[in-house]
Amino acid sequence: MSQRTLVLLKPDTVRRGLVGEVVSRFEAKGLGIVAMELRTIDGDQADRHYAEHVERDFYPPLRAFVTSGPLVAMVVEGDEAIEVVRALNGATDGRKAAPGTIRGDLSLSNRENLVHGSDSPESAEREIGLWFPNL
Ligand code: IDP
Ligand code: MG
């Protein structure tokens, strides 16, 4: 079943010059790009995006990180896109993520882990509405 999911290429991806590398992996997998925009977000947008995490200990530095420079927001589409993107991204902690995944190949950090992908159909709908309200 075709699905849409929200993907963020976080500021470390842009800063490290890995946008093309990461987008290539989604394209090579066969996913389509529905929307894509370079944006610098403020703390309020970070709080809305990470609403489920705002009370966590790791959130203040995460908030500082995701607002630290431009990121690329995307909507990606394809068969089972939500799960497929999560699998391509790999485990949250780049140090533990499997080789072959984006995080496993390119990140050595639990926080600066390059990518975000929605974790469920409900999250995808909420996050796409938050980032691309006109879609
Ligand atoms: P996910 O991005 O794989 O879905 P979540 O648990 O939803 O992982 O966490 C959101 C983001 O918060 C992670 O991608 C990562 O950037 C950051 N994060 C999560 N857990 C930690 C942690 O223990 N230390 C530092 N940053 C973390
Ligand atoms: Mg998550």
Number of DSSP E strands:
4
Beta percentage is 15-25%
- Named CATH topology: Alpha-Beta Plaits
Distance between the termini: 19 Å
Bound molecules: inosine-5'-diphosphate, magnesium ion
The CATH superfamily appears as Nucleoside diphosphate kinase-like domain
SS content category: alpha+beta
Pick out the low-confidence regions: none
Whole-number count of domains: 1
Compact description:
With 135 residues, the chain is α+β, with helices and mostly antiparallel strands. The protein contains seven helices and four strands.
Describe the protein in words.
With 135 residues, this protein is an alpha+beta fold. It has a single domain, classed as 2-Layer Sandwich (Alpha-Beta Plaits). Helices cover 41% and strands 21% of the residues. It contains seven helices and four strands; from the N terminus they run βααβααβααβα. The chain has helices at 11-15, 19-29, 43-49, 59-66, 81-89, 102-106, 121-131; strands at residues 2-9, 32-39, 71-79, 115-117. It has a four-stranded antiparallel β-sheet. The longest helix has 11 residues, at 19-29. Inosine-5'-diphosphate binds at residues 53, 58, 62, 92, 110-111, 113, 116, 119.
